[in-house]
Amino acid sequence: MLVFFLKKLLWALATLIFASVLVFLALEIVPGDPAQVMLGINATDDAVAALRESLGLNKPALERYFSWVSGMLVGDFGRSYTYSVDVRELVADRIAISLPLALIALALSTIIALPVGIYAASRRGKIADTIVMAISQFGIAIPNFWFALLMVYVLAIWLQLVPAGGFPGWSEGFWPALKSLLLPAIALALPQAAILSRVTRSALLETMGEDYIRTARAKGLSKRATLWNHALRNAMIPVLTILGLQFAYLLAGTIIIENVFYLPGLGRLVFQAINLRDLIVVESVVMMLVATIIVINLLVDLAYIWVDPRLRARAS
Amino acid sequence: MLEIKNLNLSISGTPILRDVNLKVGAGKILGIVGESGSGKSLTALSTMQLMPDGSELGGEILFQDHNLLQADEDDMMRVRGQEISMIFQEPMTALNPVHTIGAQVCEAIRNATNLSQNQLETQAAAMLEKVGLPVSRFPLSRFPHQLSGGQRQRVMIAMACAQQPSLMIADEPTTALDVTLQAQILNLLRGIVDETGMSLILISHDLAVVAEVTDDIVVMRNGEVLDAGPTGDVLRKLQHPYTAQLAKASTHVPQRNSAPILSVEQHANNIQPILKAHHIVRDYPTARTSIFKKGIPFRALNSVSFELFKGQSMGLVGESGCGKSTLARIVLGLDKATAGRVDFLGTDLSKVEGDEMRSARRNMQVVFQDPFASFNPRHRVERLVSEPLYLEPQLSKAQRRDRVRAALSEVGMNDTALDKYPHEFSGGQRQRLAIARALITRPALIVADEPVSALDVSIRAQVLDLLADLRERLNLTYLFISHDLGVVRAICDEVMVMQAGEIVEHGPVENVFTSPASQAAQELVDATPNLERALANRVD
Amino acid sequence: MNTSEFFKTALRNRSFAIGLFISLLVIAMALVSYIWTPYSVIDLDIGAKLKAPNVDYWFGTDHFGRDIFSMIMVGARNSIAVALVAVFVGIGIGVPVGCWAAARGGFFDEALMRGNDVIFAFPALLSAVMITAVFGPGAINAIIAIGIFNIPVFARLARGAALSLWPRDFIMAARAAGKSSFRITWEHIVPNMTNLLIVQGTIAFALGIIQEAGLAYVGLGTQPPFPSWGKMLNEAQTMMSFAPHMAIFPGLAIVITVLGLNLLGDGLRDVLDPRIAKERS
């Protein structure tokens, strides 16, 4: 068990290191001088030289990589050129919006998708199943940011039920802040829930064809009891895989959807940074998001052990 | 107890069962025999009302004078498990992998009673003890994957007996198991019937198994009952031609004109073997046991040595996991030995390369077990059969085609097969194609890995005849791998018995089978079902 | 099964028939846009700006007076091109990598698949963010970013399929004939996974269209003045309160296209049945 856990942890760490090298290299191959790029073509040579010095661009690449990584490990993400503040400060405020948004959306989509998928599977071939599956087919095809635009139009502009966007800040209290995240979270969650419910349904139906389901039926269990007691847990294995993959989508979706609701999250930060050519901010934000995705995938890997005792055996 | 009258079943409009009639008395064992597609399993599933979707049933299934076809789902749920229980062929997949065996047995008991969890567990433990899985060695917290196939089948039986049903249906319960396990499971079932007075329907493709344990027999083909009666009568008198044909095929021994070639005589005449294995060892790595300890490698083959002479037919028998397939792969050069060497036609296979290797491969071809898996489904027969000609790049297209035609005619197939796809052929025909593919390079040695195990008995007999005939006509040498002693006895001169990676006995076939020297061979011989012996041992 | 037989059985599948119809319609629309559109999408006609849908302008006009329908037609080119090229990038790199990993096995396999996991941690959006930060914006960014995202998807699929095929007897027979693993992969492994690849390719195509729209929406994809569906939605956002049609029609275009492709993929899955073992049952 411990060996398995450590192995997973080591691989996650290796993935993280590899990802950081990728991010670092990507910014290394900037055509021309990064300092020049960041300052624009009108900058004086002195200003460029000064920025090079302060960014440490004169040092060898390996040294810069290690100081970047070791800095991140102790929470020092460097200093934003355009904002003239520590990247850490910039990011801290923003991530307090983006991460909760992604997590709420993940929770919402799971809460919606699992019951819907189970229900559809239990009514296989019946009218309810057909309707649910037709809706989910549409749900998959709807881009979340377009869905968000429509919701804003209907709920905020037309019916004037909610504000069209913006974020009061967590300092204004938990509920008002949460309320302003709710609409974006729903916009993110519903298309994902459509995918997840289809996966849940097909995983369940596949499991219902297994030999051990026939065994359970031969014992005298009802169809419903076999579904709940025998099929569900086995079907969770593919569902977990998709759940892990979805988090990456959700995080990316968060960044896009912040634009629709004018939320001052990581997305806004990173797009401003791109326009201002603030490479340090871009580098740090991308690295942080990638790290979050890797951590979530590690958690999913560990959840498999809980679901599937065969892995527990291989692990111990 | 159970009487099926004029049962008709069709699935999505296709008739599957036609007017099936059978009867099981209280405390009796009924055997249902038939080849694949005979409808024997679907008869059982119909009784349980667990047919596939789209099934339509007609007729009557009278269980204790109630017609089950008129019972609704709620009634059937009470019948299943409590009155009629069932065990299946594939023990590896029949248990839920995410629940403990204790939970699964408890569930079977709980369904009928309202005992407390403690009482349930006590009962479950007692049930498992009864089927030979004492809690001291097999705690209730075990998961199915921690048990072997035979042990899993015991858990299935424990579950099936848990509610003390009056009828149990066992659908090929031992087909997926080794013969020694098969004997144990059959004994267990027999014991339960004697002890509890339960009735049993035993479905099997194997006449010998049915002859050993059943009181009555029903013979089915293509969804119809052809023959029925007391087992002893039916199998001794063989009045129905199909029953007679089955019995004949299952004990079939191909005719041979020449005397067996035995190693001792060859040695005496100072003849060199064509294949010689020297102390072959094959280790497989296993997972680490802790952070600091590497796993101890699993030794699949432990210093295996043998010789094979020109024209000889050598059998290699043993239970699953004994290393016989690993040995075949090493001989064929598909796997590398950890230590030791294989000499083929005087050259060390691990050292040769290029042209020499091609020549070695040309002289050594292979026939696999599963005729459905041994062809690429996307290629036509001509391309499939000619695949080994890759080893003879100098042949022209016309020559290749001639070779394919020749090989096909050797196995009794004609040229119309050339442009067909493998799915257009039956299992037996495909196995003929597989043999044609092996013959096409005119090899000296053919390694046959369970070549008839997946075939029904009547087709098995034909393929065995073909193999025996080819050997005499083309002077082939066979290394014939099988778990089935009957098959090996029918076609081999000598046999090697393997156990846990070692050859424990080696000698002329008749000697090994009539007076085995090793315990492993003795157990194998005793456990192997034998129709004649079974009939002789019957008391009726 | 030859082509005409295939279509005969396939068109009886409702998902396939509807999906094929929609997909062909969208492709036809993109092709027609090269020779004809109702209005020019480059010329501005301020006099006709922000018109609601009417007889002249079926889907209305935008804030520059451009015809939305014409823009959707031209925008289809971009969506299809980006998503399709990205699928081929994914197949072209992912399938060889997956097959190679399966053929070699051992540490090599593990290392390649871990490399895959690393790429999996970069959603197309993050790749696009980095590429744009480095090279500046452009349509090619979207292709690279979505293509990179597709690589591990196809690599995993190909590896899984190859691993399930390698132990099969017909591969053993080919090995016994002395064929190299490269040759076996080419002759036996790849042909037996084409059905899987076609189905997954269709689904990745659909996903690519959504991803491309998302990237264009946040300004990381196609740049103006060339119309793209995502960009149109971005421009529509500030005018939601008085010109909702500017957002509705490009969005519908995306939904219908993606729906069509997904239906086509589902239908193909049923018709081709990529479960390799099916014919055994």
List the helices and strands and how they pair.
The complex is a heterotrimer of chains A (316), B (540) and C (281).
Chain A: H1 2-28, H2 34-39, H3 45-55, H4 61-73, H5 87-122, H6 127-141, H7 144-158, H8 174-208, H9 211-218, H10 223-261, H11 266-275, H12 279-307, H13 309-315
Helix pairs in contact in A: 1-12, 5-6, 5-8, 5-10, 6-8, 7-8, 7-10, 8-10, 9-10, 10-12, 11-12, 12-13
Chain B: E1 2-11, E2 14-24, E3 29-34, H1 40-48, E4 55-63, E5 66-67, H2 73-79, E6 84-87, H3 91-94, H4 101-110, H5 117-130, H6 149-161, E7 167-171, H7 179-196, E8 199-204, H8 207-213, E9 216-221, E10 224-230, H9 231-237, H10 241-250, H11 263-268, E11 275-284, E12 298-308, E13 313-317, H12 324-331, E14 339-344, E15 347-348, H13 354-362, E16 364-367, H14 381-385, H15 397-410, H16 427-439, E17 445-449, H17 457-474, E18 477-482, H18 485-491, E19 494-499, E20 502-508, H19 509-514, H20 519-527, H21 531-537
Parallel strand pairs in B: 3-8, 3-9, 6-7, 7-8, 13-18, 13-19, 16-17, 17-18
Antiparallel strand pairs in B: 1-2, 1-4, 4-5, 9-10, 11-12, 11-14, 14-15, 19-20
Helix pairs in contact in B: 4-5, 4-6, 5-6, 6-7, 7-20, 8-21, 10-17, 15-16, 16-17
Chain C: H1 3-10, H2 14-35, H3 68-104, H4 106-120, H5 124-135, H6 139-165, H7 169-176, H8 181-189, H9 194-217, H10 229-237, H11 245-272
Helix pairs in contact in C: 2-3, 2-11, 3-4, 3-6, 3-9, 3-11, 4-6, 5-6, 6-9, 7-8, 9-10, 9-11, 10-11
Order of helices and strands of chain C: HHHHHHHHHHH
- Please count the beta strands of chain B (DSSP E, at least 2 residues each): 20
Pick out the low-confidence regions of chain B: none
Instruction: Bin the helical content of chain C.
Output: over 70%
Radius of gyration of chain B: 26 Å
> Which secondary-structure class do the elements of chain B indicate?
alpha/beta
Q: How many extended strands of chain C?
A: 0
What does this structure look like?
- The complex is a heterotrimer of chains A (316), B (540) and C (281).
- Chain A has 316 residues and is mainly α.
- Chain A has 13 helices and no strands.
- In chain A, α6 (127-141) crosses α8 (174-208) and α7 (144-158) packs across α10 (223-261).
- The longest helix of chain A is centred in the last third of the chain and has 39 residues, at 223-261.
- Chain A is globular.
- Chain A starts with a helix and ends with a helix.
- Chain B is of the alpha/beta class and 540 residues long.
- A 6-stranded mixed beta sheet of chain B has the order 6-7-8-3-9-10, with helices on both faces. In chain B, strands 16-17-18-13-19-20 form a 6-stranded mixed beta sheet, sandwiched between helices.
- The two termini of chain B are 22 Å apart.
- By secondary structure, chain C is mainly alpha-helical.
- Chain C is built from 11 helices and no strands.
- Chain C has helices at residues 3-10, 14-35, 68-104, 106-120, 124-135, 139-165, 169-176, 181-189, 194-217, 229-237, 245-272.
- The chains are: A mainly alpha (316), B alpha/beta (540), C mainly alpha (281).
- Chains in contact: A-B, A-C, B-C.
- Chains A and C meet through α1, α6, α7, α10 and α11 of A and α4, α5, α9, α10 and α11 of C.
